[in-house]
Amino acid sequence: MKQFGTILKFELRGYLKNKVFVGTTVFLVIAIAIAMFIPNITAMFKSEEGVKDKTVMLVYAQDGELASLVRQYFEPAFPDYEVKLAEGSLEDVKEQIISGSAECAFAMDSASSYTYYVNNLTMYDANTALAETLLKEVCRVTAMLQYGLTPEQAEKVMSVEIESNVTALGKDQGQNFLYTYIMIMALYMVILLYGQMVATNVASEKSSRAMEVLVTSAKPSSMMFGKVLASCLAGLIQLVAVFGSALVFYNINKSAWGDNRIIESIFNIPVNLFVYMLVYFVLGFLIYAFLYGAIGSTASKLEDINTSVMPITFLFIIAFLVVMMSMTSGNTDNTLMKACSFIPFTSPMAMFTRICMSTVPWHEIALSIAILIGSTVGIGFLSAKIYSVGVLLYGTTPKLGAIIKAVWKA
Amino acid sequence: MRLELKNIDKSFGDKQVLKGVSFTAESGKAFGLLGRNGAGKTTSIRILMNVFPANSGEVLVDGKPIDYKAIQIGYLPEERGLYPKKLIIDQLVYFAELKGMGRKEAVLSVDAWLERLEMTEYRNKRLDTLSKGNQQKIQLITALAHNPQIVILDEPFSGLDPVNAILLKDVVKEQIAQGKIVLFSSHQMSYIEEFCDSIAIINAGRVALHGDLRDIKRNYPRDRLVVSTTKPEQIQSAFGGACTRQENGSLMIQLANPEEKSAVMKRLVEHFDIDEVRVFEPSLNDIFVQYAGEQV
Prior knowledge:
The complex is a heterodimer of chains A (about 400) and B (about 300). Helices cover about 70% and strands about 5% of the residues of chain A. Chain A has 18 helices and four strands. Chain A has a four-stranded mixed beta sheet. In chain A, strand 3 (about 105-110) and strand 4 form a beta hairpin. The two termini of chain A are about 20 Å apart. The two termini of chain B are about 35 Å apart. In chain B, helix 2 crosses helix 3 (about 105-115) and helix 2 packs parallel to helix 4 (about 130-145). At the A-B interface, helix 1, helix 8 and helix 18 of A face helix 2 of B.
């Protein structure tokens, strides 16, 4: 136990002194800080740009009355544009757009038919969609007036509003989608990054022959658990630094964010979801880290690591894809997901997704966590075995069969 | 203290690496474990250090199974290497702590050893900034800092310059004088001959020879004479096939019977121009070649 503590401390200090680790963390914190200050920064620029001329939108119609009616509707609906009545012929309008003095133009044939002129049509140009809604309104109001309604009556008809309330009795997928997404992305990145680090760490001890002294000084199980838990702690420290600074910077800029529902909901994660997130994150991380460590101990050269860890990386990416696809399809309770939420290598992501996005009976959650804890400990000891067999094998990377045989005998 | 390996068998897969290896080492003495590459020395050492268990056989201290919690072992592996990117003081303290020392105690001991091996100036440097010989001295500290009762040194002299070799010799002599069991494994026979009172030669997983080095030498048949002379041709023609010319120019005369030793010596001195004549005693090198050379 004392040995385990010594190893844990030594390995953790190794991470915290590692320039890449510190550099990445600092970079992430700075990136988060910048992201959190964005509303303030844009507000700063906006106040300067406020006086700048708006881009021009032209409304052209042969019928001058139609043109001014349309303009009357468009002006409040397109606050980013200065809506102007076009002068001259249609050719002049096109000329103005090409020369850049106007950005776009609506050439009205009638209230229900128009041509939209724009120089470069961007992918996100929503002007026509909005224009159509407005034009329908124009047509309807015109029609109502023709049928003899007063303008007040027409306005009353047009401004009917429907009151609605949605209450989700189970889970609100829309809101919890975000937590799931963040957790799965964080787990994905941390496992791939740190798993590789654990594997490299073990393999480099082997290639530098520090292993020769280590195996005679410490128990393989102490080594394996010390290393993996140290990397897990390092990962958590990094995440706490990143999310903690996000929280701090968010609170500094809270007023500037106003009531941005997405951002707000991230920081108001329900406590029970947060606890599940932590549990599944730590266990999911550990189980993969043990595997990566075991693989690292069977490689004899650092260069072999990338190919050796491939099967685990594939396993993990498949789990990731299954969960991601179920998540975006909205049906997180399909049979595949149910199965995956009990298999230890997929359950951290699958079960957490299900908890967030649907209603899972407590005994299923308990069973999933129990299986996961059991297999994590089991994989941990198996990895320690593989480690103790693997570390003294030099030369060619041993075949899987040979490792299994040696572990079985050990 | 008496360290004993008794009938150790060990197989890796289908390959039997050790076949009933037994030897004994005593405290206050140095013990030489010899053998060709792949003979099973490192496997024996690893079993002794409990890196993996033997298939059968025992490791005993004073007749009782060794208690790895009570008996500390220091090991300098043949394959050298520590953490190249870490500070020397950090890793030395780490290894001493792994062996059960408290942190303060470990720092004190490591500093004392750095001083003893004239390495204090490198204390806060990274290992990979040191020369190979100096890295080796650092590695020696990992074997000695926790003050073990048993010290195992595998090829300790390889890569050291003569000055450092003398320093290491002094350290080894100190360890022996402190009553520790020092176990040497080396191919440099001159060092083994200088330090070791007893040896074991392992050949193809078996102990081919084991015992006190002086006794082993004394038990060799004293039936050969080494002759230094200025006129070897005369002697060679007189003794015929029994006399062979050695590489260093001296002659070796094989006697038909050890008892005629004195008579032959007298005859040589009386009839030929002789600088020196003595009974041939094999060097450890000769013994090694004889016992480890033959394939079983």
